[in-house]
Structure formats: structure tokens, C-alpha cells
Amino acid sequence: YAAYEALSDTLQRLLSSLSAFHDGGGFRAIARDDAQRKDLETRQNAVHPVVRTHPVTGRKALFVNSVFTKGIVGMKPAESRALLGFLSEHVATPDYSGRSRWRKASIAMWDDRCTQHRVLADALPEYRRMERVTLIGDAPR
After folding, report:
1. What pLDDT digit, counting tens, does each position of 97-121 carry?
2. Which of 61, 81, 65, 62 is nearest to 23 (CA)?
3. Could you give the residue ranges of the DSSP H alpha helices within 1-119?
4. SS3 call for 43
5. C-alpha to C-alpha distance for 90 and 86, rounded to whole angstroms
6. Residues 87/51, Cβ–Cβ less than 8 Å
7. 24-56 as b/e, with b when 16 or more CB fall inside 10 Å?
8. For residue 138, how many C-alpha atoms fall within 13 Å in the half-sphere facing its CB?
9. What's the pLDDT tens digit per position in 25-61?
10. Distances (CA, A) of 55 to 7, 50, 75, 120, 138
């Protein structure tokens, strides 16, 4: 929420009127079996609003990601790259980050509807094991 709320009213209005192409095709490479790969192939591409309203809190958040968001609908490629580059840099600033102090058996959970997961390579060469659980939820609006 904080990254969206820190933007000017003018930029918030512009972004609220935009949708973006998302491509989750990279998950095919880590699919565990043919059924999972086939499922990912059928729903890997989607168009979502750039700003989504959280269905529980009613608050707005940026819904773009430097890995999955590939372009802004209706924009020329150079415009789209510039805007997505700005947004990716904006959400990655420390002002909008939470950090975990990891200990043995630590668990972290977050709500992808208003939070982005970003790994910093500041604990190398420590071992990190990650199990991902994604719930089927509501359509972004």
C-alpha cells in the first residue's frame, strides 16, 4: 500500500486507469509434472489492472512486478518500459520494504494482493529453503 500511497494524486489517477500484460510462463520451468505444466500453459498470460483494490481492506496497491509484468495495455513499447521501470524501481526502495531476521525454522507469509516478495542476496552463502503455496483467490480489480 505504501508504495502506491507515496505516488502523486496525478500518477495514482493515471495508473488506476491502466491495465498490464502479465506472463507467468517462467513457472513452467519449475513445474513438477506434465499436468502442472499444461495447467500453467493454459493460464500463464493475463491482463490485470496496474492498481488493484484489496477485496478485504478496500485499500489500493500497485499490482506490477518486474518479473511477470511485461507491458502496459495501449502504450507504445518504449513508454511501457519507461513506466514499468519507474514502478519497479519505486516499489523496490527500502521505504516500502519489510525485513525478516531469520532464525532456524523461521516462516514468512505475506498477502500477494498488497505485498511483493523480493529476495536480497545479503545472506550468501547461507542455505535458504523456500516452499511456495499459492491460493486461488479473487480476480484483481
Report:
1. 877 787 888 888 888 778 877 766 6
2. 65
3. 2-5, 9-16, 34-43, 77-91
4. helix
5. 6
6. no
7. eeebeeeeeeeeeeeebeeeeeeebbbbbbbee
8. 9
9. 666 666 667 776 666 665 567 899 999 999 999 999 9
10. 21, 15, 28, 29, 8
Q: How far is CA 120 from the centre of its chain?
A: 16
Cell 496496474 locates to 50
Please report the sign of the dihedral spanned by the C-alpha atoms of residue 32, residue 35, residue 36, residue 42.
positive
Residue 68's closest CA among 117, 112, 24? 24
37, amino acid identity: R
- pTM strictly above 0.85: no
Mean pLDDT, range 127-132, rounded to an integer: 74
Burial annotation 96-126 (CB, 10 A radius, 16+ → b, else e) = beeeeeeeeeeeeeeeebbbbeeeeeeeeee
